Amino acid sequence: xxxxxxxxxxxxxxxxxxxxxxxxxxxxxxxxxxxxxxxxxxxxxxxxxxxxxxxxxxxxxxxxxxxxxxxxxxxxxxxxxxxxxxxxxxxxxxxxxxxxxxxxxxxxxxxxxxxxxxxxxxxxxxxxxxxxxxxxxxxxxxxxxxxxxxxxxxxxxxxxxxxxxxxxxxxxxxxxxxxxxxxxxxxxxxxxxxxxxxxxxxxxxxxxxxxxxxxxxxxxxxxxxxxxxxxxxxxxxxxxxxxxxxxxxxxxxxxxxxxxxxxxxxxxxxxxxxxxxxxxxxxxxxxxxxxxxxxxxxxxxxxxxxxxxxxxxxxxxxxxxxxxxxxxxxxxxxxxxxxxxxxxxxxxxxxxxxxxxxxx
Length: 360
What we know:
The protein is of the alpha+beta class. The protein folds into two domains: 1-65 and 313-360, Malate/L-lactate/L-sulpholactate dehydrogenase, four-helix barrel (Hypothetical Oxidoreductase Yiak, Chain: A, domain 1); 66-184 and 226-279, Malate/L-lactate/L-sulpholactate dehydrogenase, NADPH binding domain (Ribosomal Protein S8, Chain: A, domain 1, 2-Layer Sandwich). It is 41% helix and 16% strand. It has a seven-stranded mixed beta sheet with strand order 2-3-4-11-5-6-7, with helices on both faces. Strand 2 and strand 3 (77-85) form a beta hairpin. Helix 4 (87-105) packs parallel to helix 5 (123-129). The radius of gyration is 20 Å and the shape is globular.
């Protein structure tokens, strides 16, 4: 597999988005987001998405030149209308709005609508945590009449993956971060497993006939994803998904809920930011967080386990490793990205890039 640096991923995404018609500032935000997703270990939300964004721009389902606006505000509550812009641009704007409201009121709740795929959800609560604030984001994906996530006990997809993210500042300059789909997996991860020719590590799926499956291709052949917890404990993931949809998408959207497989708005979400410094001194909070992490990570280990990590530590470690050695990109993804680069005639401005090797 070819290996790219974070800077190469940024440059590719930036130049491609510009060529597709994006404003400079929008292209910069998207490129930075995709590169950071790869560096953090979330390849399903990184370079893989470049051809997808170009496609939805060409289909008229995303406006790369749009700018988000605050459409409504009442004290600590606000709604951001993305006007069809990239999800990363709209969600970043909404997060900054929530941070601003939290500084003024102690808490800021901002919903967002009319934005595209917002990428790695953890990016946005992480932004708030770096400002010394706590944050919760609920990403209510569109309902889906095909594919999608099956409700617990069902054999056909009806829900989106409906991710949830929370972040809390850590005194050592890091972020405590939770970021996961309320389904057994995200669709992007299925694409990664499929592109690498790997089976899933468990029965995360139902095939088109409703049988449990660990073959990622079964999803793309008409199957559905199981809720978090799978066949035995999936009632918890299903209920969590249901509430993320209610508080994320239902609060964020500005039109009736329906199947929107061809619609523009797929990133309707809600973010809540809390200025914890208004509740108690940050020094006290930092001290308590340090104590809690030390207490938990000092737990006696199971056999074969190297250590206990705090939420978000994997991303922090992966980012450090990948910044040093680069990001491996599966051949299928790289071939798709190269086709886009060549289609826009960007080879010269991007400089030397790995070639795509034929797949067998």
